[in-house]
Amino acid sequence: MKLLDKIMQKKKTAGEAQPQPQLQLRWHEAGPVHWTETSDSVSRRFQFEPDGQLSVKLLDDSRPVAHRVVDSFLNKFFPSGYPYSVNEGYLRYTQFRALQHLSSAALSVLSTQSLLFAAGLRPTPAQATVVSWILKDGMQHVGKLICSNLGARMDSEPKRWRILADVLYDFGTGMEVLSPLCPNLFLEMAGLGNFAKGMAVVAARATRLPIYSSFAKEGNLSDLFAKGEAISTLFNVVGLGVGIQLASTICSSMQGKMLAGPLLSAIHIYSVTEEMRATPVNSLNPQRTAMIVADFLKTGKVLSPADLRYGEDLLFPGRLIEEAGNVKVGRALHDVFRPSKINEWKEKLPEEKFLLSRGSKWIDMVLEHNATGEDALRGWLVAAYVGCMDKSSHEMSTQVLQDAYLKMSDIFSPFLAEVQAKGWHTDRFHDGTGSRFAW
């Protein structure tokens, strides 16, 4: 028995030691996993390397030259995996972004040429192009100081501030274009124009990240950012060429600038507006939260960022939405509540991170300092249910509040799950510079 036990033990030990080398040997014998795919007259070899990386090799491409040029352009200026690696609306956003940068660059050449004419110089178009970069870069420092305290507002409404940035830029450019008409006020007009352009540059850069983030679909934010900046650079160069051509021909006179300037500015503002309309921002702010709640109460469904984007008011985002309870967020606590009312609210809903106060025209909601998007959604639903249950009263009765709260509690878990499934980020709530409270 002892001998048999020893033999069995040796076999068992040998059996345990063998599997790992055998697997490695088989991997090396079989070689890396690879396959060939053919689509649209293009043959590619895909191969998984031993380290897990996927490599792609082009074997044959019989497409026409034009198709290959388009494919090369997409590879250089669009994120890897496009269109499956980005959210809906990215192509339209990119098209108008290209047009925006082209018109802006052309307009900057004309404005700088006008500035130098007003200063008594007679520059060539090439000189105007060089000086435009110097003037723009110099004013960025002043713009940073002025815009340094507006970051929270830009987080809340990046689309609105992006449009405002381009309006400021065109205002500054317009002042520069008109400066030859007032040579005695050259310093004032040039200074005001470049000050506005400096603020515009900072506002545009500050809103760039939340806009790019809304298109990122597979953790590819860096790729999106790099390709987006490549598109901007390409069409800025094209725009500078267009501007030089205009400055040498029809815009060599002041009359020509007065015709071309407004046209380029209109194209510029229209392009950035269409860019922002196509952008599916997926963070919660007061306007988007109200629209989500209103549509949910009306249809029982939650809008996705792509569904909601064209309904946003980009110029006046603070409008009240009756179907969502006419909620206004961010007023100071001492302007909304009396001390006795605050104590009553703490007794009614001690665990919640929002306070509600009903007035004659709207319902004020004040959030705790660490409230998230989920807390804002809870408060908004309660306010909306209160508005539906009692439309005539200007006071929020305890019974109505309790009924509204219970109704919100019954539906909130599936509602929140659907909100998150649609792609909304509920971990924070961007209310701009709105006031919050802390106990």
Secondary structure blueprint with pairings:
Layout (H helix, E strand, L loop, with lengths): L1 H16 L1 H12 L2 E7 L2 E7 L5 E8 L3 H13 L12 H29 L6 H23 L3 H6 L1 H21 L7 H21 L1 H8 L5 H28 L5 H25 L4 E2 L1 H14 L5 H4 L18 E3 L3 H4 L2 H10 L5 E5 L4 E6 L4 H17 L8 H24 L3 E5 L6 E2 L2
Parallel strand pairs: 4-8, 5-7, 7-9
Antiparallel strand pairs: 1-2, 2-3, 6-7
Helix pairs in contact: 4-5, 4-7, 4-10, 4-11, 5-8, 5-10, 7-8, 7-11, 9-10, 12-16, 16-17
How would you describe this protein?
The chain has 439 residues and is an alpha/beta fold. The protein folds into three domains: 28 residues, no CATH class; 189 residues, Growth Hormone, Chain: A; 155 residues, no CATH class. Helix content is 63%, strand content 10%. It contains 17 helices and nine strands. The strands form three sheets. Strands 5, 6, 7 and 9 form a four-stranded mixed beta sheet that branches. A three-stranded antiparallel beta sheet has the order 1-2-3, with no helix packed on it. A hairpin with a 2-residue loop joins strand 1 and strand 2. Helix 4 crosses helix 5, helix 4 packs antiparallel against helix 11 and helix 16 packs across helix 17. The longest helix is centred in the first third of the chain and has 29 residues. The termini are far apart. The N terminus is likely disordered. InterPro entries: RUS_fam, UVB_sens_C, UVB_sens_RUS_dom. This is Protein root UVB sensitive 2, chloroplastic. Belongs to the RUS1 family.
Described by strand count, sense and barrel closure, the largest sheet is: 4 strands, mixed
State the end-to-end CA separation: 78 Å
Task: Provide the β-strand percentage band.
Answer: 5-15%
Mean pLDDT score: 80
Q: Which class of the largest domain in CATH terms?
A: Mainly Alpha
Shape: flat
Q: What class do helices, strands and sheet pairing give? A: alpha/beta
Family: Belongs to the RUS1 family.
Pfam families: UVB_sens_C (PF24160), UVB_sens_prot (PF04884)
Protein name: Protein root UVB sensitive 2, chloroplastic
